Amino acid sequence: MHRHVRPLFAALFVVFALLAASPRPVTAQTADGDDWKLVLRKNQEALILQASRFKSMETMLPRVLRDFRSELGALESLRDQLTVITSLTSGNPWELRAVLHGLDRLRGQGDALVEPFRATTEELGRIFEQIETLEGEFSRQSADKPEGEVGQAIDYYQRYVAGVKKALTRVKGSLDRELGPATRLQTGIAEMEKNVRERFSGAWKDFFLNPAPSVLGPSAWAEPGLKMELWLSSLGTYRSFFSGEQNTSPWDGLAKPAALALVALLAASVLSARIIRRFPGLTGVLKLRGVLRFTGLGLAFAWAAAASPFLLFEGLSVAAEIFFAAALLSVSRFLAVFLGEPGADDAPNPLRHLFFLFACGLALRVLGLPSPYSELIWTALLLFSAASVARRPLRDDTPDLIALLTTADRWLFTLLALAAVVGYANLSHLVISGWFLALAFLQCSLRLGRLITRWLGRAEAAGVSLFARGVVGGLVAPLIHLGLFFLALYWFCTQLGGRTVFFDILDFKVGYRDIGLSVGRLALLVVGFHVARTAVAAFKSFLPEAARLRPEWDQGILDVLSVSATYVAWGLYVLTGLFLLGANFTSLAVVAGGLSVGIGFGLQNIVNNFISGLILLFGRSIQAGDTIQLGETWCQVKKVNIRNTVVQTFDNATIFVPNSDLITGQIVNWTHKDARVRREVTVGVAYGSDTEKVRELLFRAAAEHPRVLSDPAPLVQFINFGESSLDFKLMFWVADVGHGVSTASEIRFLIDRIFREEGISIPFPQREIRVVSEPGDGQKPGGAGYPGLEPTPD
Q1: Of 695, 750, 743, 737, which Cα lies nearest the Cα of 717?
Q2: What rounded mean pLDDT belongs to the chain?
Q3: In this structure, are residues 722 and 668 in contact, taking their beta carbons and an 8 Å threshold?
Q4: What angle do CA 602, 605, 607 make, to 5 degrees?
Q5: CA of 541: how far to CAs of 464, 465, 625, 789, in Å?
Q6: What is the DSSP letter of 708?
Q7: Cα(584)–Cα(76) distance, rounded to whole angstroms?
Q8: What is the mean pLDDT of residues 633-638?
Q9: 615 or 249, which is more confident?
Q10: 627 phi and psi, to 5 degrees?
Q11: Tens digits of per-residue pLDDT, 61-101?
Q12: 692: left (phi over 0), alpha (psi -120 to 50) or beta
């Protein structure tokens, strides 16, 4: 039909060109020359040519509309069939998913059919408006009653424009009448889609959680022959479809997967062969070939299912799921071989029994065997798998997490077999699918995690930048695990009926009033957390390089940049999180006002320390590396935090000092602007020593020590005449305050040695004690000469 629509569009656009080529209103002033006659003649020829083309369009229009009605009738017939199927379905989510696919495909066909005519109708409306404008302009010129040939020309154009307007009105009316049923069809399809999507919320619960008649009960075996006859008749529908009796070709849906599968197999073979030739020693390349093949086949059948008729959709979708599941296990096997896990080359995958049941369950759903035959077959498959798992020998080496979890399969299969017997076969199908998908994705996730951990170790040994390692370990790895989780969730939701259930789960919200958290927003919060953390770590990894490029930047500047980046990143994350939670910032202002009352009473010290920390960071009065004195304690600042400052004494004791104490109290910072420090050594010499010589010897001791600075120069002062010595003070400068105490001690050793060599004595305090005895005090102790001591009686 579309080959007839194109000439119609061409003719309609010719009409538009006719209007563009129409002469502008002619005034009486052009009658002075003959130029206006040439213009009229030229436009008259164009009008005649366009009129003939528009006439051919009117001739073609009935045939185009007839084809349009035919195709529209076919679409309405398909809509009626889907309506009947929707009304007859028992609430099976897979049937509803197939109906949604059919409605989506039908809506696409309807849009493709209607869109050209709708665009043409809109264009005709715009042309009609331009014609009316042109007609009004000619009427205005005609109101001036021009005479002669000018008046005749205007009259001619008025009649011609009126004829074009009449023809356009007729064509537009025909198109509007034809678009009416098509618009109603599209509206009906949209309403059907809405109704089917609304049924999904309760359909999967009823289908999987409500029991069917037990195979042990008599109701399940009522009229088994009739059930088989109905099932065979449904297969007859497929036979007639493939034989072409329904005027539709099944190869429209099968040609695409066949071609794409062939391309996928060829591409996988060529790519794996090239990889093997390029990397002959690469472990696991042969396993990669299976990954490419299964993935290509899965994509082929998924693409074919999206464009297939209603009857082929379920079969092609199941084939795609089975191939994708096989590709998932192949990816896990390839990772195991690549990681060099023991027995990865020849050991079977512990999930093979689950994969077998997963594929058989999908196949049984597509076949649609009547009850109780499908339940019996499914129960037999479960019991067979349970027996196979029970006979599986345990590995001698330590099994991994997946192998440990699959040890419960035999009990799970047996329990699900009993559930299928009593009427919960649908639920057992769902449990098998969910358990297989959970373990398969968990297996891939664990092995990918080990692969990333190995790469990080090798990257650190190879000297890969901290930024690259931080991005891979802090952002890429969590995003991979999160992506695998949601991929598994989406796949499991297809078992419940399709992506509608997945989006319902993402929109599931828990909250109070306007504030709430959904699964989708929780995922965004998790992603935002890792992005903020990685951004902070990446920025901090650049700080050492920035310090190398800018030597004038001290540690305080780097701390300010680090803290600022941290609070900006996490502040943006908190604001984004509040926005995702649906928080009202007006309400937050009220909460902040109430919180300020609590801050004034209970959190005053915390806020005080927080503000003090900001002052210390940006004021840089104290920064990491400074040597400070707290009372009598000397210590070194290790880190200035927001709440407290961490200092370490020279006895290796760590002290956490509240920031408010550093702001309000008096602190001695020995290295605030300059790390140099002056130290003093006091020494005394004996009376009678040569003071000039002593002075020279003290200068000599200072000059011999390598840590004593020559600028500022050392200084010797004669400070006092002591009781037993002449006191001198040696003052000298050291480049680093950390060496001040040790340097003073070493200079004392030098002074003692030099004084000994030069014969300068260092006196020590001496005291003379005189005992003055009074006359008559020469008696022995215990005699009468000592007061208070009397002879002891016999």
Answers
A1: 695
A2: 76
A3: no
A4: 95
A5: 12, 9, 20, 88
A6: B
A7: 49
A8: 85
A9: 615
A10: -105, 120
A11: 677 777 777 887 878 877 877 777 777 666 677 777 878 87
A12: alpha
- Produce one character per residue of 685-704: b if its CB has 16 or more CB atoms within 10 Å, e if not: beeebeeeebeebbbebbee
What's the mean pLDDT in 418-439? 91
- Which DSSP string corresponds to 465-486? -HHHHHHIIIIIHHHHHHHHHH
Measured at the CA of 296, the angle between CA 292 and CA 297, to 5 degrees, comes to 120
Contact 148, 29 (CB under 8 A): no
Cβ atoms of 107 and 189 within 8 Å: the answer is: yes
Using the CB atoms, write b or e for 552-580: b if 16+ within 10 Å: eeebbbbbbbebebbeebeeebeeebeeb
**Burial of 747 per CB tally in 10 Å (0-12, 13-18, 19+):** buried
Contact 611, 605 (CB under 8 A): no
Strands of the sheet containing 644-649, edge to edge, are: 654-658, 644-649, 633-640, 627-630, 668-669
pLDDT tens, residue by residue, 656-667: 888 888 888 788
Residue 718 or residue 497, greater confidence = 718
Measured CA distances, 130 to 134, 168, 753, 778 (Å): 6, 12, 115, 151
Q: How far is CA 76 from CA 109, 174, 319, 449, in A?
A: 11, 20, 30, 53
Residue 217 gets the label, from left (phi > 0), alpha (psi -120 to 50) or beta, of beta
Task: Between 151 and 331, name the one with better pLDDT.
Answer: 331
> Whole-angstrom Cα distance, residue 59 to residue 602?
89
pLDDT of residue 179: 78
Place of tokens 């497929």: 238
Does residue 212 or residue 385 have the better pLDDT? 385
Q: Summarize pLDDT for 514-550 with one digit per residue, the tens.
A: 677 888 888 889 999 989 988 888 888 887 777 777 7
Residue 436 pLDDT level (bands cut at 50, 70, 90): very high
Using omega within 30 degrees of 0 as the cis cutoff, is the peptide bond preceding 372 cis? Answer: yes
Query: Is 70 exceeded by the pLDDT of residue 471?
Result: yes
Residues 631, 633, 639, CA angle at the centre, nearest 5°?
105
pLDDT at 7 over 60: no
Could you give phi then psi for residue 649, rounded to 5 degrees? Answer: -75, 170
Token digits of residue 595: 């919180």
Which H helix or E strand runs over 750?
helix 740-758
| pTM for the structure as a whole | 0.69
Determine the Cα angle at 206 with ends 200 and 208, to 5°: 100
The pLDDT of residue 507 is above 80? yes
Q: Please list, in sequence order, all residues whose beta carbon lies within 8 angstroms of the beta carbon of residue 57, skipping any fewer than 6 positions away.
A: 7, 8, 11, 12, 14, 171
645 has which bridge partners? Answer: 640, 657
* Confidence band of 355 (pLDDT split at 50, 70, 90): very high
